[in-house]
Amino acid sequence: MATKYKGTPAEKQTLDLFIKFMRAHDSLENRIRRDFQNLDLTPAQFGVLETLYYLGPLKQCELASKLLTTAGNITRLLDTLQKIEYIERLPEPGDRRSFRIHLTARGKKLLEKIFPKFLRSIQGSFNCLTTDEKEQLNHLLRKLGTHIKHSLNE
Q1: CA–CA gap between residue 69 and residue 66 (Å, rounded)
Q2: 28 to each of 24, 35, 36, 37, how far by Cα in Å?
């Protein structure tokens, strides 16, 4: 549904775009949550495993930055993943206060099992777009994200 706001055409266009963007986000998030229901793993926990799988061991602060999450949230995620033996924290050489997060063999095995299913689901979510449309959307979302990030720093 388009906005019923009675502002200028530019204001209405922006609000309408925002509504559609948020609805698309919510739909994608609901799809992901549904896909993870049977895995005993949350999307955030999957994000940790997937990041470590593809980037290798990272410091906790680096991992938090990659996942766009807070220090407190990453600590809670890592505590849970360590308890179920999907990750391990190893001391960072030369820095007694820091740990490097490693994916365990068990975590790697799980990710290798579930990643293909996740990828197929995500591909299904985007298969309504052509290759060119995906490239355009990728470019536009990066441009929007960069703009918002820089405006927060001002």
Answers
A1: 8
A2: 6, 11, 12, 14
Whether this prediction's pTM lies above 0.85 is answered by: no
* 86 touches 106 (CB < 8 A): yes
Decide if domain 40-153 falls under CATH 1.10.760.10.
Answer: no
**Count of CA atoms in the C-beta half-sphere (13 A) of 52:** 32
Instruction: Provide the residue ranges of all domains of the chain, joining segments of one domain with +.
Output: 40-153
From the first residue on, what is the mean pLDDT of each consecutive set of 10 residues in the chain (154 residues)? 78 92 93 84 92 95 89 91 96 85 96 92 94 96 91 82
Q: Give the residue carrying structure tokens 């298969």.
A: 127
Contact 90, 129 (CB under 8 A): no
CA distance 102 to 113: 18
